[in-house]
Write a structure and sequence with these properties.
alpha+beta; 3 helices; 6 strands
């Protein structure tokens, strides 16, 4: 895997997106706090790593190419608020091309 500086907000998000692209579920899941809340495309709240893992398994299985627009990042101490627009594209298991767009809003905590 490419070397990412996960001590920065930009590096942490690049790492997470690379995990999706290469289909690495456990590394994608390592980006989440044990008490994290992940909101899926349907607006359902997935709480904790057990629930979030199911979403990461589904997303990572597709190995979509994912990219984002220039983010807006606000830092307050060890916390970062990240907002951007993203797009993912790839092919479904049955061979259909797919492209999705959305937005990210997340709060990240710098850890040692």
């Amino acid at each position: 895997m490419q070397d990412f500086n996960r001590t920065t907000a930009v590096g942490a998000v690049a790492y997470f997106r690379n995990c999706i692209k290469i289909g690495d579920v456990s590394s994608a899941l390592s980006c989440f706090h044990p008490e994290a809340v992940y909101i899926d495309r349907d607006g359902q709240e997935l709480r904790g790593l057990d629930q979030i893992k199911k979403a990461m398994q589904a997303i990572c299985a597709l190995k979509f190419d994912i990219s984002g627009a220039t983010p807006h990042i606000t830092m307050v101490g060890d916390l970062a608020m990240w907002m951007d627009l993203w797009q993912m594209s790839g092919t479904t298991p049955d061979g259909r091309p797919i492209q999705m767009t959305g937005h990210t809003a997340c709060i990240m905590k710098k850890t040692k």
